[in-house]
Amino acid sequence: MNHDKEHLKTITEKIQNLPTINEIGRRIFALASDPEVSMGTLSHAIHQDPSLAARVLKVANSPFYGMSRQVDSLQLALVILGLNEVKNIALGLLLFKAIKKLNGNKSYDRTKFWFHSAACGVICRILGHKLSFRSEGTDFITGLLHDVGKIIIDQYFDSKFVTIFQKTFTHKPPMLIAEREILGESHEQLGRWLAEHWRLPETLCDAIMYHHELPSVETHAPIKDLRLASLSYIAEAFCELYNIGWDGDSGYSDIKDRRAWEILLSHQNAYAPKDIDRILTETLATFSEVRPHLLWL
Ligand SMILES: [Fe+2]
Ligand SMILES: [Fe+2]
């Protein structure tokens, strides 16, 4: 029997306060959704968690972040990258670390899943930077959290997850099709509900929702930024094409999806549709440089 929408939404809300986020994390989390927060307050809060502060700087200085100079302090990162970008990187890292601590089903390979998620974050960032997409750090978090709905299903709908997983393994339908059939909703929808409850930016919630299927032109889903959604769609397809990590899904995303590329190429002049293969090759080359260092995320 499928769960109804309200029931699924209620369960998803339970994960709103992650038990794995400590007091300092909670403070950063609260500040991140405060549009009035100052650089000084945010910097002070992040410094309370030295490991988070170090990881924020590591991200800012990683080859995938595209910085032209070394960023050796949080203050400098705030000046160069801007408050929203640093806020989003910190929030993404905080949430990613917290959900990684949740226990899951033994048959679902979490190591490969986390690698897939981290890789998607990095690929969204590499592609976003290449295509002149200024997303204030939401590209990176989108990739990190795009499949968070699967963690909710694994954590709160254990027996359904096993059935979904077995069906996907045996009959090979894309996982989201099996989720809709067996649970009633897909991991994209659950991920979106959770992101909304975390008060993540609306563009990010939409990108999580549409990372396997962009909203059709006909339905005109009220989506604020189709570029972020297209980025998450292509990053997902990229991971599948080049076998990067594993999320249980296959055969659903098309790396050459015309609409996604039209949207991604529409706000820049450096690349044309004929350059898509080159973009993918260059992205893979940058990703290969970063790949050995991804596990610290
Ligand atoms: Fe997915
Ligand atoms: Fe994925």
What do you see in this structure?
This protein is mainly α and 297 residues long. It is 62% helix and 0% strand. It is built from 16 helices and no strands. One fe (ii) ion (FE2) binds at residues 147, 187, 211-212, 247, 249.
CATH class of the largest domain: Mainly Alpha
Bound molecules: fe (ii) ion
Question: What level of helicity do the residues show?
Answer: 55-70%
Structure class? mainly alpha
Rg (C-alpha, Å): 18 Å
Order of helices and strands: HHHHHHHHHHHHHHHH
N-end to C-end Cα span: 38 Å
Residue stretches low in confidence (pLDDT < 50, at least 5 long) are: none
The number of distinct helices, counting runs of at least 4 residues, comes to: 16
Largest sheet: none
Q: What is the molecular shape?
A: globular
Q: Strand content of the residues, in percent? A: under 5%
Number of strands: 0
The CATH H-level superfamily of the largest domain is Hypothetical protein af1432
Mean pLDDT level: 88
CATH architecture classification of the largest domain: Orthogonal Bundle
- Output the CATH topology of the largest domain: Hypothetical protein af1432
Number of domains: 2
